[in-house]
Amino acid sequence: MSLNKIFIGGISGMVMLIISILLSKFSEIIFPSLRIEYENTYLFRPWSDPLMSVYYLVPFLIGIILVWIWDSIHEIIEGSRIARGVRFGLGYWITTLPGMLMSYASFPLSFIMVISWTITTLFQALAAGLLFTAFLKK
């Protein structure tokens, strides 16, 4: 994988992180109970825990992985640039749904929290797909 592709993966990771932070704040405004749930140390580590810094690294790792996947399959995605980006993003997003269902079934998380994660992931996936079609050749 070229440095340019890794760079685009990093940029998509930054965009995904920004989307996550913004939609998290927006979700907490609409559903104040989410803030209380996030502060529950029986469910989540406190932000003061150094391991929570991994939260900021994950979107960058996902961005680089998605660039690798894009590089492997972009030739079979048909349509305009926007349509290809949306199809790629939706394809990735769909693969996250079983994990969301498993999180809801396995952990004492509210349905609203899992839905907020699902919506956030949708926006992140679409943004990554659109970035790839804009900056990486077909």
State the helix count.
Answer: 5
**Unreliable residue stretches:** none
Alpha carbon gyration radius: 16 Å
Number of beta-strand segments: 0
Structural class: mainly alpha
Q: Please, what is the average pLDDT?
A: 96
Q: Output the helix-strand order.
A: HHHHH
Strand proportion = under 5%
Largest sheet: none
Please estimate the helix content: over 70%
Gap from first CA to last CA: 15 Å
Shape: globular
Domain module count: 1
Reconstruct the topology from this structure:
Elements (H helix, E strand, L loop, with lengths): L2 H28 L2 H6 L15 H20 L7 H26 L4 H25 L3
Helix pairs in contact: 1-3, 1-5, 4-5
What does this entry look like structurally?
The chain is mainly α and 138 residues long. It has one domain. Helices cover 76% and strands 0% of the residues. The chain is built from five helices and no strands. The radius of gyration is 16 Å and the shape is globular.
What is this structure, in a nutshell?
The protein is mostly helical and 138 residues long.
Task: Record keyword descriptors for this entry.
mainly alpha; 76% helix; 138 residues
